[in-house]
Specification:
The complex is a heterodimer.
Chain A (H helix, E strand, L loop, with lengths): L3 H10 L4 H30 L14 H7 L5 H5 L6 E2 L11 E2 L30 E2 L2 E2 L8 E4 L5 H4 L5 H5 L7 E8 L5 E8 L9 H5 L7 E4 L1 H4 L13 H4 L19 H7 L1 H4 L1
Antiparallel strand pairs in A: 1-2, 3-4, 5-8, 6-7
Chain B lengths: L1 H30 L4 E4 L2 E4 L3 E4 L1 H10 L5 H17 L3 H5 L3 H14 L2 H5 L9 H16 L9 H11 L4 H15 L3 H6 L1 H10 L4 E5 L9 H5 L26 H5 L5 E5 H10 L1
Antiparallel strand pairs in B: 1-2, 2-3, 4-5
The chains are: A alpha+beta, B mainly alpha.
């Protein structure tokens, strides 16, 4: 210990060279930048995680939308029904981005779609709501209505067609299916069915639903749909068979048991009884 | 009353512009006015002229977004505007956070906090350029506009126009930070938007000019300046303030009793200098 002491003193007295000072300062800057960069990125990652948000019509895919939306609120100002909101701090949604809550105010599907052309950045893409050079709100895809048949009173046998009547694509996006009510033997169930290929996710049905918490509600399409994948094909449908052309082959390997078949008969008795 | 106007004429004008812009933006959302629609990130003036925040567009570019023509025109308009009136004129004439940090600074002076903490500032004013670079790196890696998701400026401005939520907390944080942690902490050290406009402001036209012959070395200008380092020529040389970090807030001009500081156009002054 005592031998080391003068050494330390000597180091202290030596002035730091400019080069050393520069390198240390750079290292300090880079270190602080890396530290704050990780904190910052972690926050952004959490703040932009999938939120089951409904975006205005014509919105890009969520990933691209978050890149492209400049958060100016021009769509919100253009909306004549005050449907669209900008996420505030405390809403727990990606900050400053537009969304709507259909149970409060649904999208009334204006034919001139005022919210889309005002977007300066193309985060609301005019092309995605245009057919033959004209704006067409009926092809908008804000989400997809889903019915919880446990809480939908029409599925109980009580007559209600509020969602069917509210749907702006009347008789297309929601249809009523008649089915015999075997409980009474003399009535019919009149069950609402949502058709995913035409539903725009405007949420008028969710707004109209009479139950305490809506039994029909809009989810982002991504969250409301499944996917059959390439292994299941409608063999009776020529178009569906075409999917096989792009099917990806995945090879799996199952290890064969090395035990003899005889053993499994003798050892496995415990499983049988 | 005359001296009050004289000592605060630019401050009063700045508050008028800052609040006036807020009222116009607010009116667009609340009552459907069409003078100035949108917010500071992107807006439309008189239903024709698009204006967009160039720093936000830069982050979008880094994130990999496709930039539309509308956006680029808006960016061009804003860039030209601030090339004319001074890059950081945004900071002292438009940004709503300026009122928060100015009031923190006012209170700091009233409470004489500098006497407790000492005048030596523990942080570098170059932090903002690091934050600026970092925001672009994070935008690139995460594929989102990094600063726009945490910007207290957009939070405050959006909050006032579209509904505040917890946005007041962001403003309070900055107020307390500037008051108790670091003098001119947010605007003068950290804010990357200020850093961005500092770089743009290097090339801008309207500048504060110092006339050395009139100067009595009272140093009132250095006392009020939020970016003291830009006033290095005071009492030494007749020069325009060329640093982009000057916000053109004109506090120095209004406190100067000797007409030693005034606004002028950069290139003219340079011609005069070469003519000498």
């Amino acid at each position: 210990m005592s031998e080391n002491r003068p050494k330390i003193k000597k180091n202290k007295k030596q002035p730091i060279s400019d080069r050393r000072r520069f390198i240390l300062n750079m290292a300090r800057g880079l270190g602080l930048a890396a530290m704050s960069g990780f904190v910052w990125s972690a926050y952004i990652d959490e703040a932009t995680a999938s939120q089951l948000l409904l975006r205005p019509p014509g919105a890009l895919k969520e990933e691209d939308f978050l890149k492209t939306c400049i958060k100016c609120g021009l769509c919100v100002e253009a909306c004549p029904y005050d449907t669209l909101l900008l996420a505030k701090p405390g809403d727990h949604k990606p900050l400053g981005t537009p969304y709507f809550v259909p149970r409060d105010v649904p999208c009334y599907m204006c034919p001139d779609i005022p919210c889309v052309p005002v977007c300066p950045t193309g985060a609301l893409n005019e092309e995605s709501v245009t057919t033959n050079g004209e704006l067409d709100i009926n092809i908008a895809d804000m989400g997809l209505a889903v019915i919880d048949d446990e809480s939908c009173i029409a599925f109980w046998g009580i007559q209600c067609d509020a969602c069917y009547r509210a749907c702006p694509l009347f008789g297309t996006a929601i249809t009523i299916e008649y089915e015999k009510n075997s409980r009474t033997g003399k009535h019919a169930f009149m069950k609402p069915i949502v058709h995913a290929d035409t539903c725009t996710g405007c949420g008028l049905c969710e707004r109209a639903c009479v139950t305490e918490k809506p039994a029909i509600f809009v989810l982002p399409r991504e969250n409301a749909t499944g996917k059959a994948g390439d292994y299941y094909i409608k063999g009776w449908d020529k178009n569906d068979e075409k999917r096989l052309e792009n099917a990806k082959e995945i090879k799996t390997k199952t290890e064969l048991s090395k035990k003899s078949a005889m053993d499994s008969l003798n050892d496995g008795l415990g499983d049988l009884y | 009353m005359g001296t009050l106007w004289n000592n605060y004429r630019y401050t009063i004008l700045r508050r008028f512009v800052q609040i006036g812009l807020l009222v116009l933006y607010f009116g667009a959302n609340a009552w459907g006015w069409t003078i100035l629609m949108g917010n500071l990130s992107s807006s439309i003036f008189l239903n024709i002229i698009p204006m967009s925040d160039p720093y936000a567009a830069l982050q979008m570019f880094a994130a990999g977004a496709v930039l539309t023509v509308d956006l680029l025109i808006g960016v061009g308009v804003i860039t030209l505007l601030y090339l004319l009136i001074g890059g950081r004129a945004f900071c002292s004439w438009v940004c709503p956070i300026n009122m928060v940090t100015d009031s923190a600074n006012y209170l700091r002076k009233k409470l004489e906090l500098d006497r407790v903490q000492g005048v030596k500032q523990p942080a570098s004013r170059n932090i903002r350029y690091w934050v600026l670079a970092l925001s672009l790196v994070i935008s690139f890696i995460m594929g989102v506009t990094a600063f726009e998701f945490i910007s207290p400026i957009s939070m405050a401005h959006r909050g006032i126009v579209f509904g505040l939520g917890f946005g007041w907390a962001a403003m309070l944080i900055i107020f307390l930070f500037d008051l108790f942690v670091l003098k001119n902490g947010w605007c003068g050290h950290i804010c990357p938007l200020g850093g961005f406009y500092s770089i743009l402001g290097k090339f801008s036209l309207i500048r504060v000019h110092h006339i050395e012959e009139n100067c009595t070395l009272c140093m009132k200008c250095k006392d009020v300046c939020p970016e003291k380092q830009v006033l290095h020529m005071i009492g030494k040389e007749s020069l325009p303030i060329l640093s982009g970090e000057c916000t053109n807030c004109a506090r120095c001009i209004e406190v100067c009793d000797d007409d030693a500081l005034k606004f002028s156009i950069k290139s003219l002054a340079q011609n005069k200098k070469t003519g000498e």
